[in-house]
Amino acid sequence: METIAEPTTETAPFAGGRLLIVDDDAAFGQRLARAMEKRGFVTEVAESAYDAAVLADRNPPDYAVVDMRLGDGNGLDVVERLRRKKPDAKAVILTGYGNIATAVTAVKLGAVDYLSKPADADDVFAALTRESADHPAPPENPMSADRVRWEHIQRVYEMCDRNVSETARRLNMHRRTLQRILAKRAPR
């Protein structure tokens, strides 16, 4: 279960702005909405690409936080539609399945940032309110290359319904090598 941080004392009050949160995980969407309301946003939550399109067409928001993978579509389509309706809107993509190609596509379609789940509400707030000339600070404790590799393997393994043979085929690695990797603890 993902947790949403309360506003820190360092967070300055934010005056206004309508925020659309699009995530098919209803509980996460509601927690993020409450956290962002405490930071000064007026929020609306949509659980599907269709609902987000209806809300964006009716009254385009100033800001959006959009999950990459939705039950009925792709978050990139939501960002693109929002940018057509309101070109100055700021959108952030959230995803548990990040890769460089989709991050580049998200930015080309108008997203101001691309954050991995679980994302902290302070990180989402910072991404939405950051001036375009500001660059995010590098992470304090970035994942090691071994950890990134292990996370990727785990993600593909889960996507393949924990089928070792299918995962090995998709990762283009020997099945026994994959079994040894899966048997080990996660690297730091």
In brief:
This protein is α/β, with parallel strands linked by helices. The protein has helices at about 25-40, 50-60, 75-85, 100-110, 120-130, 145-160, 165-170, 175-185, and strands at about 20, 40-45, 65, 70, 75, 90-95, 110-115. Strands 2-1-3-6-7 form a five-stranded parallel sheet, with helices on both faces. It has a two-stranded antiparallel sheet with strand order 4-5.
Characterization of this structure:
The chain is of the alpha/beta class and 188 residues long. The protein has 2 domains: 18-129, Response regulator (Rossmann fold, 3-Layer(aba) Sandwich); 145-183, Arc Repressor Mutant, subunit A. Helices cover 45% and strands 16% of the residues. It has 8 helices and 7 strands, in the order βαβαβββαβαβαααα. The chain has helices at residues 26-38, 49-58, 75-85, 100-108, 121-129, 145-159, 164-171, 175-183, and strands spanning 18-22, 42-46, 63-67, 69-70, 73-74, 90-95, 111-116. The chain has a 5-stranded parallel sheet with strand order 2-1-3-6-7, with helices on both faces. Strands 4-5 form a two-stranded antiparallel sheet. Strand 1 (18-22), helix 1 and strand 2 (42-46) form a beta-alpha-beta unit. Helix 6 (145-159) crosses helix 7 (164-171). The protein is elongated, with a radius of gyration of 18 Å. Keywords: DNA-binding, Phosphoprotein, Transcription, Transcription regulation, Two-component regulatory system.
